[in-house]
Each structure stands twice: as structure tokens, then as C-alpha cells.
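User: Can you help me understand a structure? I only have the sequence.
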Amino acid sequence: MVKHLIILVLLSVLVVLGMQYPQIGVKGLLAAHDWVSQLLTQVFSGGQVGNTIRELLALLCIPVVVGLIPSIIYWVVRRHWVPYFMEIVWIVWLVQFGALAIAYKMV
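Assistant: Let's start by predicting it. Here is the structure, written out as C-alpha cells:
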């Protein structure tokens, strides 16, 4: 219990001191999401169903691509699939969802 508390305090100090770096990453993640969403507007109609499909694909595309990059590098080096691919995808998806939920504007 004490070990976990010490680790929590140390990680909190690191987060407070280095907050600008994750913010850059989250802004990049949101910019990539907006870019993919903008690209998909050329494919899907502007109606309710088209917008829903476009946003769904934009939400799923970025985490899969981010997960594929280290997976491909791992595959080139080790010649087998990275064991934690889906965990990487889930973490990126959760971060992206959190950032999108915070940045969401009611229309």
C-alpha cells in the first residue's frame, strides 16, 4: 500500500512538471482526428447517417493506426505480432475519447 502511494505521488509530480508534453500529444491526436474526419466528409453524405458513420470511422481509425506503427516495427524486428496490440489501441482510444469529450461543442 505504501509502495503504491509513493509511486502515485511520484507520478503526480512528474505529471505536474511535464504537463506541456502530454498536451502537445493530445492536441496532435485531436488534430489527426479532425483531419481524418475532414477527409471522410468527401466520401460520406452530410446527413445524420453519413455524419455518424464518418465520426465512427474517424474515432476508430486513429487508435488502430497508432497501434499499428509500433506493431509493424516490432514485427520487422521480431517476426511475430506484438503481444499488446489491442491494449495500445484501447489506451489510445480512451485518451482520444476523453479529449474529444472535453473538446466537444454542443451544436
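Now, to help you interpret it: DSSP finds four helices and no strands in the chain. The first helix runs from residue 2 to 17. Let me know which part you'd like to focus on.
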